[in-house]
Specification:
The protein contains 19 helices and seven strands. The chain has 482 residues and is an alpha+beta fold.
Length: 482
């Protein structure tokens, strides 16, 4: 099920963008309303808790299962996170009395809270929202199961009750969380109402109906009901792995591999529709001196700061990337060189005006960049030539004193030995995409510098192993209880 992104709240605290113990006034008011509603819907049933008998074993099994499912979160691009808790929550809605069901959301979030203690309101809001949603789902299911005068078949009523509970749980959970995520983290509410999000949550809930049916009918079939969770976890992990493969881990910008593909695609589009496009190459000035004076961590901090400037100054559809080392590249679709020069100058000024906090200096340090701009079709007709022209402009900017922006020029330039070959848009490691790798010298140098790309086992394999243990435990205790 959806929840307020707990890891995002922790990152906001560490960056100082939001005080740890304070909520915006609107968010605080909404939090109070949610708390009042949660108390109102659970208090009457909690008063009957001491009268509940005979269901404690099922409660214990489902409580452990939902807590472990909450612990094994799958994060996807766009700051989304998925939990398989819906499977066990819907099963609990259909199997447990309301007094025990009201306690379940509290136990559900205990392991996550012990692992990552962040802002108080994030965890409490998640608990309150799940209390309201699960009790509403139970009410919907109980209403349908009691309609024996409308539907005579017990099996049909059970299926309809499970469907009603699933719809209510998913809809109410998303509806209650969306305002909080908007007010607290500033993320758009539509994230929780996308087809992908709602359909995924409903599938989890539907598996919960199957689990409850097998639990009451034949407990030996429980592992077949929850075994698909292994495959679901792997499938949900794929988009995040794909996103990580496109991003430079140090700066959060796109990496050279993705930039090469984007440049090829955008240049092809510009050629087909006869539209302009421009390319910016930016080189951090005197990075070696920064590293020698303040340490390599200071250089990394400056690189991250420049990446933040890019994100602040560029448009939504621009493609900023770390080309390699201290060099950056920016693809500007639908942008003539004249406009690209204005964007580049704005970036140069922002970088020069920014203060970079580093641990090895008592005062913030400053940095500058030299920028070159080349445009299609004015300066070059293919990706490598476009990069080369922008790189030559960077070198001219450095020769003229650094910290400046220059456009591509047809004038000849004496190049040093280390720039005799033009830059090519190839990744720092791994395979490259044709037709961007047309310079044999550059490719041979790339092969000498990097070994063949290998990857360790994906993280979702480790996650699936732990989830497999969860499946086994639920199966064992479910059979015992059944």
């Amino acid at each position: 099920m959806s929840a307020i992104p707990f890891h995002d709240a922790i990152e906001r605290e560490s960056s100082g963008t939001e005080p740890r113990s304070k909520l915006p006034p609107k968010a605080l008011a909404y939090f109070i309303v949610v708390a009042v509603v949660a108390i109102a819907v659970t208090a009457p049933f909690l008063a009957q808790l001491d009268q509940t008998t005979g269901d404690w074993l099922e409660f214990a099994i489902l409580a452990v299962s939902v807590a472990l499912a909450q612990f094994f979160v799958v994060r996807t691009p766009g700051n989304k996170s998925y939990h398989t808790t819906g499977v066990f929550l819907i099963a609990a809605v259909l199997l447990l009395p309301p007094a025990l069901l009201a306690v379940l959301p509290l136990i559900q979030h205990v392991p996550e809270w012990l692992r990552s203690r962040g802002t108080w309101y994030v965890q409490i809001t998640n608990v309150l929202v799940f209390m309201i949603a699960t009790m509403a789902a139970w009410g919907a299911a109980d209403l349908v199961r009691g309609a024996d005068n409308l539907v005579a078949s017990d099996d049909v009523r059970f299926a309809l009750a499970g469907t009603a509970a699933s719809v209510v749980l998913v809809a109410l959970n998303s509806s209650l969380l969306a305002p909080t995520i908007r007010l607290v983290n500033g993320h758009p509410m539509r994230q929780l109402f996308s087809y992908q999000t709602l359909s995924t949550e409903f599938v989890f809930a539907a598996l919960g109906v199957v689990l409850a049916s097998f639990w009451t009918g034949n407990a030996w079939l429980v592992p077949f009901a929850i075994a698909p969770l292994l495959l679901v976890h792997r499938a949900l992990s794929v988009p995040q792995l794909q996103a990580e493969a496109r991003v430079d881990p140090k700066t959060g910008l796109f990496n050279a591999r993705y930039f090469a593909a984007a440049l090829t695609d955008e240049l092809g589009r510009a050629q087909r529709f006869e539209r302009p496009m421009s390319l910016i190459m930016a080189d951090l000035d005197l990075l070696r001196e920064i590293n020698n004076t303040y340490g390599h961590l200071a250089g990394d901090a400056v690189l991250k700061g420049i990446a933040e400037v890019f994100r602040a100054e560029l448009r939504r559809y621009d493609v900023p990337a770390r080309f390699g080392g201290e060099e950056f590249s920016i693809l500007l679709p639908e942008t003539p060189p004249e406009q690209a020069l204005e964007i580049a100058e704005r970036i140069r000024r922002a970088v020069a005006a920014r203060l970079y906090d580093v641990e090895t200096s008592s005062e913030p340090i400053r940095a500058t960049v030299s920028i070159g701009v080349a445009g299609y079709p004015k300066d070059a007709q293919d990706p490598n030539a476009l990069i080369h022209q922008a790189d030559l402009a960077v070198y001219r900017a450095k020769l003229e004193g650094r910290n400046r922006v220059l456009g591509a020029s047809p004038e000849p330039l004496l190049m040093p030995a280390d720039r005799s070959a033009p830059l090519v848009a190839v990744p720092e490691d791994g395979d490259h995409r044709e037709p961007l790798a047309r310079v044999p010298e550059a490719l041979r140098e790339q092969e000498r510098r990097h070994t063949a790309h290998t990857t360790s086992g994906p993280r979702f394999l480790e996650l699936s192993t732990r989830l497999g243990l969860l499946v086994g435990l639920v199966t064992f205790f479910g059979v015992s209880a059944g």
